[in-house]
């Protein structure tokens, strides 16, 4: 297990609410791919800018292990610990960051399925992401993000993503369409 995974896993296991999710059998627990900066500054937002003790202090994704290569992983979960560097208003996460978190975790769901061979397209991009803000996302806090594929057809992948509090309250919902890039533009 990579040091960053181990550090974040220990952080979330120290929280009884998070630990109850992480103890399920047959889980794949990962540091999201976006937490590792790519050449040319790819993924710099989550790898560097939002990877500080004052922004997103810890971040893990997890999902049930697929039954076989090529089978769809329909849903992933993510825990994120949010700190005051994300405030829009005192004690409330900036709305743009809320949308960014939804987009990022949705992207991780697509990435998991690309690596598993269930989504054959090498690059999907956000066509739209409609977000409903239901309640403020408190800062500091640890949140649970759930991303679920609702329809996968051809080059199109529809995903619904929720952000939930430790009390189980839905704070925000994102509904998005992600489309595979055509070979030639």
UniProtKB/TrEMBL annotation:
Gene3D superfamilies: Hotdog Thioesterase. SUPFAM superfamilies: Thioesterase/thiol ester dehydrase-isomerase. Coiled coil: none annotated. Residues 91-171 form the Thioesterase domain. InterPro entries: HotDog_dom_sf (IPR029069), PTE-AB_protein (IPR052061), Thioestr_dom (IPR006683). This is Thioesterase domain-containing protein. It comes from Lomentospora prolificans.
């Amino acid at each position: 297990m990579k040091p960053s995974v181990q550090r974040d896993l220990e952080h979330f296991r120290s929280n009884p609410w998070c630990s109850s999710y992480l103890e399920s059998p047959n889980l794949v627990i990962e540091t999201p791919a976006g937490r590792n900066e790519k050449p040319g500054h790819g993924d710099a937002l989550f790898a560097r800018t939002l990877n500080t003790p004052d922004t997103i202090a810890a971040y893990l994704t997890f999902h049930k292990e697929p039954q076989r290569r090529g089978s769809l992983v329909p849903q992933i979960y993510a825990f994120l610990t949010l700190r005051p560097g994300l405030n829009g208003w005192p004690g409330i996460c900036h709305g743009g960051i809320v949308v960014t978190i939804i987009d990022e975790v949705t992207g991780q769901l697509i990435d998991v399925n690309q690596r598993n061979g269930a989504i054959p397209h090498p690059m999907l991009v956000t066509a739209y992401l409609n977000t409903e803000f239901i309640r403020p996302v408190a800062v500091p806090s640890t949140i649970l993000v759930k991303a679920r594929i609702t329809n996968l057809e051809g080059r199109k992948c529809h995903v619904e993503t929720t952000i939930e509090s430790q009390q189980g309250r839905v704070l925000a919902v994102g509904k998005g369409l992600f489309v595979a890039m055509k070979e030639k533009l």
